[in-house]
Design brief:
5-stranded antiparallel β-sheet, Spore Coat Polysaccharide Biosynthesis Protein SpsA, Chain A, 10 helices, Jelly Rolls, 3 domains, 11-stranded mixed β-sheet, alpha+beta, globular
Length: 393
């Protein structure tokens, strides 16, 4: 696979380097690797140098994710570029599926795999990237339980930079990432500029990868970067260079809600004022891309994993309508109580095998026993409106 270069941007990711090296070292040995270190102050560079001996490591300042990727792209001389987050992984078979797709479909600039939540192989975190009407990029089917997803390729307006394969010529044709984005939505911006240049993008669902989600940034920092990026996205693609009255009305509601909760988000005013002063060139979105730009409501993101949660999909002790849980293996006992109305559903293994079916009348509690439980199980109801409280013994 000499025609692929792996590109990684690092920033204080020492704890992630060992698994990153495991991923890269498991791929064909003839792949090239280029890493940009964004001024890390921990042992990221030393660890990467030790574990990835053949990698070209570029040291520089932290000017954002897109900036780091662009410095790596300057060193690439292969046909394809695999963008890989330090908290993501992909295997050889899936990478080969991506390469095969792009070789057979010359009109596509890039393709991403179906990205799963790290450690929860049936939970999707990205099946393509779309926009909200306010300029925010979102990952399709984020935190959706998908036991048997479709394997056919899917054309999308944008793909994630967390793990995806791109044609080097296409990236250079649009001058790579827009470095005005510090972090977040820069992949959606890159994708839409490629779309305006006549390229297509796809999710190759026969390929799968894993992503830890949020392992490299604090949530408050992420919220600030997302607001800054969404303003630029809206002005460039949806607002003809400006923010609409509808955008401002929504922002006013957000600020008012924060104030009612006893918080005064001064940072939102400062960030919005600073970002709207920056020059932005507008891009015309084609009618073909407009038709799919905002995605399908059935694919909208679900909630992130709550802090101290037992797994994805939980709200406290409630599965609504699904949740993943790790067990100790051996036998397992679940006390399950139907809340709003009667519920039916199943308990399945991490491989998707059905272990038990349940039917619980409204308000009733049932005990479900698994004589031999796998270490990872999913509890999922048949209806999206079902909620069931679950306690383990």
């Amino acid at each position: 696979m000499k025609n692929v270069t792996v590109v990684v941007v690092l920033y204080n990711g020492e704890k992630l380097v060992s698994q990153l090296a495991e991923t890269i070292n498991s791929l064909p040995a003839d792949l090239k690797t280029v890493i940009y270190d964004s001024g890390s102050t921990d042992g990221s560079v030393q660890e990467a140098s030790r574990l990835l001996k053949d990698a070209l490591i570029i040291k520089g300042d932290n000017h954002g994710f897109g900036f780091g990727n662009n410095r790596c792209l300057e060193k690439v001389n292969t046909e394809y570029v695999l963008l890989l987050n330090s908290d993501a992984s992909i295997d050889t078979e899936s990478l080969e599926n991506l390469v095969s797709f792009l070789e057979k479909n010359r009109g596509y600039a890039g393709a991403q795999p179906l990205v799963r939540l790290w450690g929860w192989e049936k939970v999707t975190v990205s099946s393509g990237v779309f926009l909200t009407e306010y300029g925010e990029a979102w990952d399709s089917r984020f935190m959706h339980l998908e036991l048997s997803p479709l394997k056919t390729p899917l054309e999308v307006p944008a793909i994630t930079a967390a793990v995806s394969l791109w044609r080097t010529e296409a990236l250079r044709g649009v001058n790579g990432f827009d470095e005005e984005y510090f972090m977040y939505f820069e992949d959606a911006d890159l994708s839409l500029r490629l779309g305006a240049d006549g390229w297509k993008l796809a999710v190759v669902r026969a390929a799968e990868a894993a992503h830890m989600v949020g392992a490299s940034s604090r949530r408050q920092s992420a919220i600030e970067w997302e607001l800054e990026s969404s303003i630029r996205m809206f002005r460039r693609y949806l607002g003809n260079g400006r923010l609409s009255a509808r955008w401002w009305k929504r922002e006013a509601r957000i600020v008012l809600y924060s104030m009612l909760k006893g918080r005064f988000p001064l940072w939102r005013f400062v960030l919005t004022a600073k970002t709207t002063k920056r020059k932005v060139d507008t891009v015309t979105v084609s009618e073909e891309i407009k038709a799919i730009l905002f995605g399908n409501p059935m694919d909208y993101p679900l909630s992130r994993i709550e802090k101290n949660s037992r797994g994805p999909g939980w709200k406290g002790n409630t599965v609504s309508p699904w949740g993943g849980i790790r067990t100790d293996g051996g036998s397992a006992i679940f006390h399950m109580k139907a809340l709003n109305h009667s519920v039916t559903g199943v308990i399945s293994s991490g491989e998707g095998t059905i272990l038990n079916r349940f039917c619980i009348p409204a308000g009733a509690t049932r005990e479900v026993r698994l004589a031999k439980s796998p270490p990872l199980v999913y509890i999922h109801c048949d209806s999206s409106s079902d909620r069931v409280e679950v306690r383990t013994v």
